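U., I forgot to send this yesterday:
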Amino acid sequence: MAREHIAALDLGTTRTVVLIGEIAEDGLRILGKGASGSRGLRRGVVVNMDEAARSVGEALRAAEEDAGVKVNEVFVGFSGEHIESVNSSGAVAIASDVVRGVTREDVVRAREAATALKILSDRQVIHVLAQDHIVDDQCGILDPCGMSGVRLEVRVHIVTGAVTPLRNLRNCITQSGMQVRELVLDTIATGESALTSDEKDLGVVLLDLGGGTTNVALYHHGSIRHSAVIPAGGNNLTNDIAIGLRTPHEEAERIKCGYASAVYVRPERDNTIEVPGVGGRETRQVTREELAFVVGPRIKELLFLAREEIRGSGFEHLVGTGIVITGGGALMPGIAKLAEQVFGMSAKIGGPQEVSGLESDDCAPTYATSVGLLRYAMYNLSEKEWHHGKEGGLLDRVISRIAALM
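Result:
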């Protein structure tokens, strides 16, 4: 396979990251990266087109300069409280041909049957993720092609989003000078880089703590069994600090990043923090314990919301390994320890798995989504798609045929 350049855009509520990678015979290599502060977004949704487009453009230009190449298409990671997910299943009869067995067309028909749901006109299907297949009474089949049987059933995880926010997102990126190659839910992209195959197989909860949203996903037997977006994140914590300590928002963000901890431990020294007042008021001194009284309840509330989401899914019993925490919130000291207390299972901080071209700082949890987008592209695009760029893969064909039926 010839070398191909791909670009990934992680458009977060607080930070916009663009990575440019290269797919070659030996795998994925990062060529360049660019980042900018996000503007014009709220809880993952574009609220100011011009400001958001400028943020994307700044990150894109920095990445292209760093990589020394130009790109015109990008894989976009997104989130937002408008995202909804549901599990479904569909079954079809298989032609009684012992030699031929199950064909790729049979798989497509089964997935179409699984996605024959009543979807409101203001929503659209984004992902149709196969969980497993059942041929007659044999369950847990990942790829049924070639197997003999008379009935094929597929279980899928369907992700939908509101049409208007998704259209605004595409328009924003187009305005910045790029074309959207594919929209990818942040949770799916992050899982590609921050989770190991063993964790996905044995059962794991992925907790992506972003600025505007918190993404939750539960994997088992290699596939997503449940996913959700909680409309709260690190910005809520910043607002609480600003209000609780009566300080400007910018100072509250600085205090959060520099001094906040999910679990309070009395320091041996430097126990006080300087807190500038609002509107020119005098600077005050507060202790880290006072800060903990502001920070602690909000972090616990967020983790409790994630825990209830997992418990309500009905799949909590499938979690065999524990919690993996990524995103900007994963950088807060003590967050893994507090998550263990709230969830009652082991927790760890997760970052991108080793990729050629990444520096040590780039393996931080904040790069999990952008690196995962590149891995998603590498795993899901065939050589034919790269060379011709028009004929989609299996998922594209499924969604196109579904859309034609709606």
